[in-house]
Design brief:
The chain is an alpha/beta fold. The protein has 15 helices and 9 strands. The chain has 2 domains: about 150 residues, no CATH class; about 210 residues, Rossmann fold (3-Layer(aba) Sandwich), CATH 3.40.50.850. Helix 2 packs across helix 5 and helix 13 runs parallel beside helix 14.
């Protein structure tokens, strides 16, 4: 078949579309050109598509059961009995996908094989879907391993970072002169705010991956479980831009690139995936309050104490904490539930918060309060 006899498909963008599990977004494929659009719903409805409506077909997200079967099939590729047994155990019960991926963090070579295997499975799913829709594609999917190796270099990796696999720095010593251990939040009036734990920062395939985010993510996942068990309100922020010329502001002048809507980088990491009834506030500034309804949502939920974790410590997390303080919320900032690119930046922000804006505490302390 010649290239003129079928669509030319952007396979990697298509893979992101079928892996999308966020209910507020829909992706559409143009039957004639292969163009892919990912749109955010407004009042439950997608914005109007360009051209004729019948030329577009909605892309079906890959069912979660398919993702589970992919993990099961991957076990057949594992030769080490002990690791295979641990992965099989991780697949038992609720939260299997998160446990499976967390376990692979300790095995970087196997993790790379997992990404390549998962890509192959997703591309095969797309091919089956295209066949059901009667669509032919001229260009074949990329080799999964090649796609993995094409990850864009991260500017954050060029900085002096906390080493991968190491714990977060000794932040308690850094804040000791300013620490106020007597200040604790009251669960009945508290909310957990997880800031920008998106794949750009917290997934090894993200374009600005922060090695420090690994420990923060694991800690936040534990706190999130405890918070949900206590039936306390949880809020997430998701930083992204749809058109930098209109929503980029000073950020577009300061940074070489922005987190764009509909991309892999913009997605919240799987380990901290919001539940259907948990609010995700989309923002395009450092502060979670700037241009959003965050203040109103917190007050409607009766929140006075705000527990903050996420990335980056010294940018979105610190800016949000400062503004929360100005808006008369009691701020509680997670020393081991936040992360950034450099250790000194992390410690500097914790000192700033502890000195003048809120109590810096550990995830363990927060879990003890809500448990």
């Amino acid at each position: 078949m010649s290239e003129e006899e079928g669509l030319r498909l952007d396979w990697e963008s298509m893979a992101l579309a079928v892996e999308n599990q966020l209910p507020q977004f829909r992706s559409f494929l143009h039957r004639g050109t292969g163009q892919l659009l990912t749109l955010e719903l407004t009042d439950g409805q997608a914005p109007a598509l360009p051209g004729q409506k019948e030329d577009w077909i909605q892309v079906e997200p890959r069912p979660s059961r398919e993702g589970y079967r992919t993990m099961q099939r991957f076990l057949d590729r594992i030769e080490e009995p002990a690791l295979k047994s641990r992965l099989a155990t991780a697949l038992v019960g609720k939260g299997a996908f998160r446990r499976f991926k967390d376990l692979l963090l300790d095995y970087p070579d196997v993790r790379q094989l997992w990404f390549a295997f998962k890509d192959e499975e997703v591309y095969a799913y797309i091919q089956r879907w295209l066949q059901r829709e009667g669509l032919e594609v001229a260009n074949p999917p990329p080799e999964a391993a090649t796609a993995y190796q094409r990850m864009p270099p991260s500017s954050a990796r060029e900085l002096v970072v906390a080493g991968e696999g190491e714990d977060l720095p000794d932040w308690r010593e850094a804040i000791a002169p300013y620490n106020r251990p007597e200040r604790t939040f009251e669960p009945s009036r508290a909310a957990l705010l997880i800031v920008d734990m998106q794949k750009i920062f917290a997934d090894p395939k993200g374009s600005s991956y922060l090695p420090m985010s690994r420990t923060a993510c694991l800690n936040l996942a534990r706190l999130l479980d405890a918070w949900r068990s206590a039936r306390l309100p949880v809020f997430f922020t998701r930083h992204m831009h749809s058109d930098p010329s209109t929503d980029g502001g000073a950020l577009s002048r300061w940074w070489r690139s922005l987190i764009m809507q509909g991309t892999f980088d913009s997605e919240i990491v799987d380990a901290l995936s919001p539940l259907q009834d948990e609010r995700v506030v989309v923002k395009c500034r450092y502060s979670a309050f700037a241009g959003t309804d965050m203040d109103m949502l917190l007050r409607e939920a009766g929140v006075r104490d705000l527990v903050i974790g996420g990335v980056m410590t010294n940018l979105c997390c610190e800016t949000t904490a400062r503004e929360a303080f100005v808006r008369n919320f009691n701020v509680f900032f997670l020393g081991d539930g936040t992360a950034t690119a450099e250790v000194e930046m992390h410690l500097g922000s914790l000192r700033n918060i502890a000195f003048g804006f809120g109590r810096v505490l550990s995830v363990e302390e927060a879990i003890a309060i809500v448990s």
